[in-house]
Amino acid sequence: MTAGSRVIGLGLDRVDGPAKVTGAAVYTMDVTAAGLLHASLVRSTFAVGSITSLDTAEAAAAPGVVAVFTHENAPRMKRPAWNLLTPPPPVPLRDSSVHHYGQYIAMVVAETHEQATAAADLVRVGYRAAGPAALSLETPGAKGRGNPYFLDAKRGDVESALAAADVTVDATFVTSANAHNPLGLFSTVAHWDGGRLTVHDSTQNPFLIRDSLAKVFSMSKDRVQVLTPYVGGAFGAGLRLWQHVILTAMAAREVGRPVKTVLTRPQMFTGVGHRPETIQRMRVGARRDGTITAIDHEATSPAAKVANVLYPVTLSTPATYRCDNVRGRDRQVRLDIPSPAHMRGPGEAEGNFALETALDEVAYALGIDPVDLRLRNYADVHPQTGLAWSSKALDECYRQGAERFGWAARTPQPRSMRDGRWLVGYGMAGVTYGHYQAKCQASVTVRRDGTALVRSGATDIGQGTYTVITQVAAEGLGLDPADVTFELGDTDLPRAPQAGGSGLATALSNAVHDATLNAVERLLSLAGADRSSPLYGCSAGDVVVGGGHLRHREDVSRSESFAAILARAGRPDLTAAGSSAPSRAENGVLLGSAAVSRFGRAGRRLVEATRAVAPAGAFAAHFVEVRVDPLLGRLRVARVVSAVDAGQVLNEKLARSQIIGGVVGGIGQALFEEITVDEGSGRVSNATFADYLVPVNADVPDLDVIFVGGPDATNAVGVKGIGEIGLVGVAAAVGNAVHHATGRRLRSLPITIEELM
Ligand code: MOS
Predict the structure, then answer these.
(1) Which residue numbers delimit the Aldehyde oxidase/xanthine dehydrogenase a/b hammerhead domain (predicted)?
(2) Cis before residue 494, ω within 30 degrees of 0?
(3) Residue 437 three-state SS
(4) Shortest CA distance to 486 belongs to which of 465, 501, 506, 505?
């Protein structure tokens, strides 16, 4: 069976757009219920120590207050099962100890949001701070340990290659802690009904929330339902279960009424994770002819003392260039801070900054054009495993991106390009992004009225899932997208993975594609077995879909509508399930790389025996023009061209939008974003939108995006995830452009005006 006309790829408007702009879309914050109560959280004002006294009498007596929970009266709850990618938080309100600034130490529940907020201020807390707290990687005595996740990689002999290199770069890079800051404040509404728990939540991962809450409250999963039809952005903050979700469900159970919690903006800086700071040492060796002979990448990043985070910064480095001697090593330091978490391009955004800046330094040391240097060291095969890529058009990203940008007009000498008083700089960076896919299920229901309903419990946090999946289903069923509805955001629907790791589009589009194939096959089995059907005797290879009909591939007179097939079978509709899973081949360049670096030749044999190709994520090249005012140090990003190998693009308009949004995030990482912390208390001192800088319209020029390459071979739809790659690489391209403009090599993010004066 083949699909009707192409719907996949078309730049359709968001199908959820009208609901969002008219206010019809109900976000968690908008959810209401009869008898709804409102919660306000009290946070610790010190980093580490213990609570010595808690006086809640005044708060409890305040108008409208229904309950005040602290560690002294909160019920016992279990900690959800540990898992690698999304480890759970500690059980909230468990005891008097405090492990970071902003830890929840009380929750006030009241009739109105205002009453809860006012009463929360009346909770009197006595405490003994233990110190000094270890708050940054530079804190003396902050202890590091090797990467606990076995993701370090090495090949060849880095030290000998560095010693023999004609040119070496040895530099230290520092990137700041960043906050996700989605506009939608994270919210939870919990409601118990006869032993069943319903939770509305701001999350990218509803099944994780469901399974975790079932564990916390010792109940079976099928008695918990998590609803998340709309999420006001997340950028990774919604990948994990956070304590406010547990507390909201706990409070609702204790008071016997629905409870809503909406985090405040300052709470968003301590309660839902952040991009951790990093310190990285990068050493690169090269020969005169531009061959890169050694790359040694060492990164240190923090974890909270009381929660794990899988955060490899050097992960992509060994996969990026055809270089014989490479080492990537991550160290993690435990600090008295709220847990870091994944934030758009986690680890990759920081690691790429060090690698792609160092490449620019090598290009200057050798007098070779930065694009040319990357092409000379192009990894035709996955360099750590030696396997062929499932697809790779990074060379086209370089070539077409450079062409579109007008890179050829660049004069390489720093400070050689000017426009009036502005120094002009061109910089670029390449991006090799990891592949990730998880298991996914979906269902497709074809109805007699010519419409179809597609269902899967995924989330659309703004990336366009509603729309692209509607397109995949419409194409698979040969229907007009207007006749297809996609329902998501509900754990009573078929199980879907997180909207994360740039992996949902691949997982979900393939599950839905599979479901459409199964639905069409079942329609055909109804028609093909029925003597009165024009398609009697047809098998799958004989038919195509289009216009709500099954048609014979060659004989146009043989055609029957889905409606007629269903009517004759006496059914109102027909539902088919579909699923997708990473094949063994896709499962793991991660594990493949680890096997090769840990077990050498035996590891390579193992990898080769189990895999034919190295699954490729997306690739990209960003080209940036900056303008620097040498008197004032003002820095403007004037132009960005991003060329992206996205595999099969599902919706040209939304894919472009994903990349544009990512590039804006990259400009934020490069120029603005930095969580600042008060050294004594650990207080985030810029936890508002006034103080934590993000790019605004005036900071962002028109962004130009082109897509190159074609469908990827690892999955039937040919998709590669692009949720994160737009951000990764921008910081290095900006920094390299600043160097070109000014001659200054800046190795810490964000780049600030003081450094350019
Ligand atoms: Mo992304 S950091 O996997 O939401």
Answers:
(1) 22-131
(2) no
(3) coil
(4) 465
Looking at the CA of residue 235, tell me the nearest atom of ligand 1: 4
Other beta carbons within 10 Å of 288: 11
Q: Which atom of ligand 1 has the smallest separation from the CA of 502? A: 3
Measured from the Cα of 239, ligand 1's closest atom is 4
pLDDT in tens, 465-520: 999 999 999 999 999 999 999 999 999 999 999 999 999 999 999 999 999 999 99
Q: Is 556 exposed, middle or buried (0-12, 13-18, 19+ CB in 10 A)?
A: exposed
Single out the catalytic residue among 58, 356, 724, 755: 724
- Report which of 71, 77, 123, 79 is spatially closest to residue 97, judged by C-alpha positions: 71
Tell me how far the alpha carbon of residue 238 lies from the centroid of ligand 1, in angstroms: 8
- 437 Cα to the center of ligand 1, angstroms: 13
In the residue annotation, 673 being an active-site residue is answered as: no
In the reported structure, the alpha carbon of residue 283 is separated from the centroid of ligand 1 by a whole-number distance in angstroms of 28
3-class secondary structure per residue, 241-261: CCHHHHHHHHHHHHHCCCEEE
- Domains defined for the chain, CATH in brackets: 17-24+438-581 (3.30.365.10), 31-131+182-234+238-268 (3.90.1170.50), 153-177+274-436+614-756 (3.30.365.10)
ipTM of this complex = 0.98
Q: Around Cβ 18, how many Cβ atoms within 10 Å?
A: 11
pTM here is 0.96
Indicate if ligand 1 lies below 6 Å from the C-beta of 718. no
State the alpha helices, DSSP H only, in 256-393: 265-268, 348-366, 370-376
Which residue is closest in CA terms to ligand 1's atom 4?
A: 236
Task: Output the CA–CA distances (angstroms, integers) from residue 418 to 276, 306, 626, 630, in the order listed.
Answer: 36, 52, 11, 11
Q: What is the pLDDT of residue 514?
A: 98
